[in-house]
Amino acid sequence: MKKFNLFKEIIVVTKTDFLHAINSSKRFAISYEGKIVYEPFTSNLISIYEGSIPPISPLSTNLSRPISEMLGKEYRIVEDDDRILIKASGAWQNIIGYNQKRSVYDDTSGDGIAEFSDKPLEDIGWHATEFNISYRDIVEQFEEHCEGILLCIEQEEPYQFSGLGFVFDLEHARKIGFEYCAKIIKEKLENDEDFDTLTDDEEEAAEFFKAI
Prior knowledge:
This protein has about 210 residues and is of the alpha+beta class.
């Protein structure tokens, strides 16, 4: 998976597309790749902005609207000839709201990852906890072996991290997660005396992963 750190990344949008969206009065989104799309949004959208820009009232005393202010104060916008350059880290809380339901996992709180949004992956994560395999353990396998995006804000000093994970091929992620957990559980059943005698839940989990 590729880390897309909004503290470092600049989203580049074509100026004509940006102005067309602004002036359309339609609800639109800007993807992390700089593409503009209109509703209805697809389930694989990863956005840094969603909304519509209301037209300026003809009663307003100021009929001009700087491009730098069009998306709101949370965004830093610079015009560069025929491009619009956007820094979006200041809008992170809004971005979480846009993308949370579309992400596979949510690592935006200090409590860590609590579940997967994909049901087969959640079944894997739920059963794996019986053998002390955490959601974070499984996610590290996704981040190493799967194609996807970790949309995040991350800085070193003082350290700060908050992220949403998106996997492009769910079938591959399910395979990676299942095989990783099955391997760990088989090793524990063979070598860890804590699992010499299994509870009903542990036995169910072992059977789920075909470890017994």
